Amino acid sequence: MVAMADPADPVHSDSAEAGSPGHGPRRVLVRGFEAARADGDVVAMAEAARRLAGDRRFGAPAVSAGYLHETYERTVASGPLRLRALLAVELARVWGYANEFERAAPFAADALEVAERLGDPAILAAALDADLLGRWGPDDLPDRVAVAARLDGLAGRLTDVEGRLSAALWRLTTGLEMLDVVAVHRQLRVLDDLERESGSARVQMFSASRHGMQALLVGDVAAAHSCLDTVRTAARASGEPDGEALVHVLASGIARQEADREALRREAIDYETFGTTQGIRSVTAEACVLWLEAGEPDRAAELLEQVAPGGLAQVPRDVDWLLVVTSVAEVAAGVGLPGLLREAVEELTPYTGRGVVNAGGVAFVGVVDHILAIACAALGLEREAARHTAAAATGYRRLGATWWSQRLQKRDLTTHGTSNSPPPTASAASPDTIMLVPEGDDVWLVGPADRASIVKGVKGFRYLRLLLARPAVPLTAPALVAAVNGTSGKAILQDAMGELLDRRALTEYRRRLGQLDEMLDDAQHAGDHHRLEQIATEREFLLDELASATGMGGRVRRSGGDNERARVAVRKAIATAIARIADADAATGRLLTDTVRTGATCVYNPDPARPVEWILDSTSGTAG
């Protein structure tokens, strides 16, 4: 519903409030643009065009992009590179805010290319922000994390508050998506510092809205009310076009946590009116959820027909796709639409383990596994529901999401408050023993130990074997390539991954080391020598990784090509390997599809409902 801070990167040095989008009557700006055109003053044209196109609300159509297009074309032909980059940034933002990402992409690419040539950190930050607007689809998360990390690293070289604000909001958003509570708290601290430094009502509005989001995340409704009051005041003072939307997001979140049906009904009316009149699918989908929460399922079901009239396959895979599909699934479970629910389960399953975020971290609306638990329970798939419930509970514990954890336990979204019975839990089961063992001459044993198949090997088997041996430990794609190819992991990590992604990996490595130390004590106490050996092997690997990565902080990020090639190569190799395994044993293929995630970092997250002991060589196994 609401996106990022929209830093104007003004062509002239107006203050944020004085140069806010849409400043001045539009007819005066049009006359100014026409006069500048007649005089051949491209700088004045750019200023007028920026202001004409700047009064934008997220999701609304672009109404004045033509002024920017005309000015941009002049700069491409003969104008200064700096102005060209700034206009390309503005065009990318205009089309990005209108949810027309294909039209935004070429301008973002041009802005980034010109900014790299200029070497100006402020322009490069603006270009990276614009580039991120084209990487907001559900399948773009690895790229989004990488670019947001690069922008975050660049923010330390900026004095411009708007550029640093944008960097903080992007990093906050990806932190929520990745369930990275450390990143979330760190960026909230950055927002506090920016608010104090700038004294800007606009920055205060963004800071208070995200603190309100965090308050609702942890169930502190009193703090959320206080943040809402601040957002209202700051939105009026700043004149921010999306300020009123921020107010509604917080107000509706508070109404949900207070179970205030009258307030929910008011918000549902406002959401429905805005979503339907403006043609914004995600807002209409949220209205459906609010009607359901307000105790009016018939109205929710009726409105749902406008959200996905041709089924979920017709929903654009853009910034709002995950929000729309999870909202549809909630409502479909509540009103009894099994066809939509089955679609939702199929569509959402590849995105387990991920947080659902309303645009730029404006609201956290649960984890994907929570919605899948609801959908599976409504379809009578209790084993799957229990598995997703366990995964959702883990995600909420990571974030300290108290209210969401309680909601999961009560399953309010499935029962609408009619039952407080806890969700079913998976019955205890002995782990299956599954083989992925190289047998020489590029032949592997694959599948359940009692009926393993002989399969011709592919490189992806070796990547999978490394991941399966280290459950819950994220490994970078270049590190996997290095391990399989026998090259220097340190050199590849430094040259290909870049500073910020390494820091994320290091954080995860250190977290896992802490877990291993606890497990080591338990294994020693129990006298489990086999487990001791497994833990010691993994611990030694992580310590080697930490040693090889130490000392990179502060280096200029070097990146792009090698990292991207490694990411794509590893993703394709693992996908090929899983497909080949599925041909040999469909159940093992499904298990790996559900538990192995690929991207800039790859990880095997064991499913607690499907315990497995992996046999990865001819003499030992690895529990997962």
Write a brief caption for the model.
The protein contains 28 helices and ten strands. With about 625 residues, it is an alpha+beta fold.
Can you offer a commentary on this structure?
The chain has 624 residues and is an alpha+beta fold. It folds into 3 domains: 1-199, Tetratricopeptide repeat domain (Serine Threonine Protein Phosphatase 5, Tetratricopeptide repeat), CATH 1.25.40.10; 259-415, Serine Threonine Protein Phosphatase 5, Tetratricopeptide repeat; 432-512 and 546-623, no CATH class. The protein has 28 helices and 10 strands. Strands 5-4-3-9-10 form a 5-stranded mixed β-sheet, with helices on one face. A 3-stranded antiparallel β-sheet has the order 6-8-7, with helices on both faces. Strands 1-2 form a two-stranded antiparallel sheet. It is globular and about 80 Å long. The model is unreliable at 1-24, 412-429, 488-501 and 550-560 (pLDDT under 50).
Write a concise keyword list for the protein shown above:
single chain; 624 residues; alpha+beta; Serine Threonine Protein Phosphatase 5, Tetratricopeptide repeat; 3 domains; 5-stranded mixed β-sheet; 3-stranded antiparallel β-sheet; 28 helices; 7% strand; disordered N terminus
Query: What is the straight-line distance between the termini?
Result: 39 Å
Strand order of the largest sheet: 5-4-3-9-10
Percent in helix: 55-70%
The quaternary organization reads as single chain
Our count of helices gives 28
Gross geometry = globular
Q: The biggest beta sheet, please?
A: 5 strands, mixed
Task: Please identify the structural class as seen in this structure.
Answer: alpha+beta
CATH architecture name of the largest domain = Alpha Horseshoe
Mean pLDDT: 81
Q: What CATH first level of the largest domain would be assigned? A: Mainly Alpha
Count all strands and give the number. 10
